[in-house]
Amino acid sequence: MPVEVVALDLSAPAAAADLHRAVTDRGLHVTSLINNAAVGSFTLFADADPGQLATEIALDVAAPVQLTAAFLPGLRHAGNGFVINLASASGYLPSPRMAVYSATKAFMLSFTESLWTELRGTGLTVFAVAPGATATGFTAHMGPDAAVLTAGKVRRPEDVVATALHHLERRNPAPAVIDGRANRLTVTLTRFLPRRRTAALMSRIFDPTR
């Protein structure tokens, strides 16, 4: 399969428009969109670099919204294809030391669910995939304290892909799917806890001194 590469900083304000223009100029027909790019940081919010937080919001929220807005008209016109948004299990949970990242993923879940509702019956399939810790090198730039994020069982990228493909093949896929049995269990069980208990539990899990 031929591969076309367009090198862009997706956190830049004009990135989505630039990518759409580049694709159009090359005469490419886009049938599907996967919003996968993201960045995170692992630190107390009070100690975080404001510039880094702005980049997280730009890449994790603004970019997928703008990319979807740019490519959705063509996808709707074709009447088939899919939009897959990469969320995270942390989008369902408070994540101390990753407050902004988990909030961006909660946004992605809500955004995707709304799109799923709006686009039903159009022929487009829309859903979010919510993985937990995955062996992608995502935490490599976060410093030694972030090792706590991968201290337990870590999923492989191909596991996440398999989950997405299996969900895509469903007759009527739900607006979101959580990757990994342990992640599904954690999210499900915390729904039965008071939010303050869930926050306290996640604080212990994310404590780098534990």
Automatic annotation (TrEMBL):
Is the keyword Oxidoreductase in the record? yes
Which cellular component terms (GO) are annotated to the entry?
A: membrane
Keywords in UniProt for this one? Oxidoreductase
| Keyword Oxidoreductase annotated | yes
What domain of life does the UniProt record list for this protein's source?
Bacteria
Instruction: Give the Gene Ontology MF terms in alphabetical order.
Output: oxidoreductase activity
Cite the InterPro entries for this sequence: NAD(P)-bd_dom_sf, SDR_fam
| Family note | Belongs to the short-chain dehydrogenases/reductases (SDR) family.
Name of the protein described by the UniProt record: Short-subunit dehydrogenase
